Amino acid sequence: MTDGARAVVTGANAGLGLATTRALVAAGIPVTMAVRSTDKGAAAAAAIRASEPAADLRVQQVDLGDLGSVRRFAEGSTDPISVLLCNAGVMLVPEQSLTADRFEMHWGVNFLGHYLLAGLLLPTLTADARVVSLSSIAHRSAGRLDRQFGLGADYAPGQAYGQSKLCTLMFSLELDRRLRGSGSGVKAVAAHPGWSATDERPPRERGDAPGLGLVFARRISQLLGSSPAHGALSQVHAAIGAGVEGGQFWGPSLLVRGKPHPATVSAGARREDDANFLFALAAELTGCEIPG
Ligand SMILES: NC(=O)c1ccc[n+]([C@@H]2O[C@H](COP(=O)([O-])OP(=O)(O)OC[C@H]3O[C@@H](n4cnc5c(N)ncnc54)[C@H](OP(=O)(O)O)[C@@H]3O)[C@@H](O)[C@H]2O)c1
User: Fold this and answer.
1) Keyword Oxidoreductase: yes or no (predicted)?
2) Which pLDDT band holds residue 224 (cuts at 50, 70, 90)?
3) Class in CATH terms, 6-196+228-286
4) How close is the Cα of 138 to the center of ligand 1, in Å?
5) Which atom of ligand 1 lies closest to the CA of 36?
């Protein structure tokens, strides 16, 4: 690894992001915890240091639902980056809601904020860096790219989430094609955790509006999901594992749990015409072009 290089993990204060940060620290990698709340980030860093006193951790604020905040984060990020882990995400937001820039929340946070973050940080990536994007098995039920991006009158939380995770997988595959095309050694790799019981706080405490679907999903997840440390195995493998190639998609061997294994990419996610449309739109909306 390049001297002074760091990993950047979005959503590093909780769930899979926190488990991933712990794993990277255990592997001796300095980590910048890119978090929406620096108080939560500092508390999570303190919890990690309690068991890993030598951990090289930095906490830096970013709200992925605010493109201005993403730009400020990138301006303040000058160290070389060996791993950019685009992990933060919102899931099954009960009511249609918008980011600071008036994009649908799932699409804006899970995809567009990370598109801009990766685009702005590309010049600071080391020659052999990896950009890891978190998708989900839910991308498969999304079908093809829906060009309403969650802003239609027929908002459904599951569909909006699935579409955002389709976009994060398409982002990873297209980013890798563009990196290869430009002769870069940087790899874009996608991962999904299967089903992991992460945020167990009640919806009101998390700031979500109460919603039966979300409560039900969380309950089932608590019963059937893997631990965050287990759920994070695939994204940790994508980030630092041996034999990982750009353009791959990793997930648990038994779909919802298990060791890291090549995962199935849906036909919709493989459509290069839709991926090019998505990149052109994201470039227009963010002012950041990722050349092909
Ligand atoms: N758990 C699963 O079974 C599962 C399955 C498939 C995919 N995934 C994906 O895995 C990733 C991590 O999920 P998780 O289960 O660990 O969820 P989680 O426990 O709810 O954690 C989500 C993280 O994202 C952060 N975040 C949310 N909105 C943000 C914003 N606008 N700006 C910056 N950070 C923001 C949260 O910060 P706050 O603490 O400040 O809210 C938190 O750190 C997500 O992309 C999710 O879609 C999870």
Assistant:
1) yes
2) confident
3) alpha beta
4) 15
5) 33
